[in-house]
Amino acid sequence: xxxxxxxxxxxxxxxxxxxxxxxxxxxxxxxxxxxxxxxxxxxxxxxxxxxxxxxxxxxxxxxxxxxxxxxxxxxxxxxxxxxxxxxxxxxxxxxxxxxxxxxxxxxxxxxxxxxxxxxxxxxxxxxxxxxxxxxxxxxxxxxxxxxxxxxxxxxxxxxxxxxxxxxxxxxxxxxxxxxxxxxxxxxxxxxxxxxxxxxxxxxxxxxxxxxxxxxxxxxxxxxxxxxxxxxxxxxxxxxxxxxxxxxxxxxxxxxxxxxxxxxxxxxxxxxxxxxxxxxxxxxxxxxxxxxxxxxxxxxxxxxxxxxxxx
Length: 310
Ligand code: R5P
Hints:
This protein is α/β, with parallel strands linked by helices and 310 residues long. It is built from eight helices and 14 strands. It has helices spanning 10-20, 60-76, 105-116, 145-155, 171-181, 223-234, 253-259, 289-300, and strands at residues 2-5, 27-31, 37-41, 49-53, 81-86, 120-124, 139-142, 161-165, 184-191, 199-204, 211-219, 240-247, 264-268, 283-286. α1 crosses α8, α2 packs parallel to α3 and α4 (145-155) runs parallel beside α5. The protein starts with a strand and ends in a 10-residue tail after the last helix. The chain binds ribose-5-phosphate.
């Protein structure tokens, strides 16, 4: 087994390789003056099972292209099989036609990765589970809920907890966490009047006098979460903690969070935000590296990945 890192999140790749006690493949990945990408593998990988780690976060198009070229270079170098490890799978939110003449971008990206030569995908908290079906190769979708639950049980000394889903789509994930930490469940009825804007319509469940834990897969502009926190506070919640797998944090999101009523935002490092969140005491990062390394090791040894979540 060998590991190749793309350039989107080298910190995470290093952490994963450290956990696996493996050196990253020696590569030369650079950009030509016009922005085109050049990939060269500087060691023999013939007959190896190779895991390519690349989050397709911003700049999404560049990072996707780099992933495709890495896979192609590995295929042409006679790797035995290639697993695309995509901690954050960009374009996942465009998983269906939302209007009559729109693209299903998640499907296009899935086709590109398969056609480049990947034989398996490993990813984390896919925005929509059904994206697994866009691939005709195995997809291992890892879940952060057990990791978040362990963190809460270890660090939270507070009582009266209620887990809150920020929208109807997140109920299954939130119920999973609520069950694990033995908390109540509440649901926010969110509406998107236009893309990029969100509005809280109703809160279903009792949050008055309670400490709330919102859990979601993505925080992008921060609008969904900040509005949810405002509404929960208005409804009498004491403190609101937020757990997010993929911190996209576009534009001024990190600053808005700093100024918001969020007590603490806990994110993972599927996307490298080290610069954006520097000096932001409201945001804490839990590394996904141990979970990813364990999944890679299990795939390599052909043992169960789902056992990780039982
Ligand atoms: C939506 O379904 C997702 O789970 C997130 O709630 C959404 O992408 C967050 O976006 P924003 O932070 O821009 O409101």
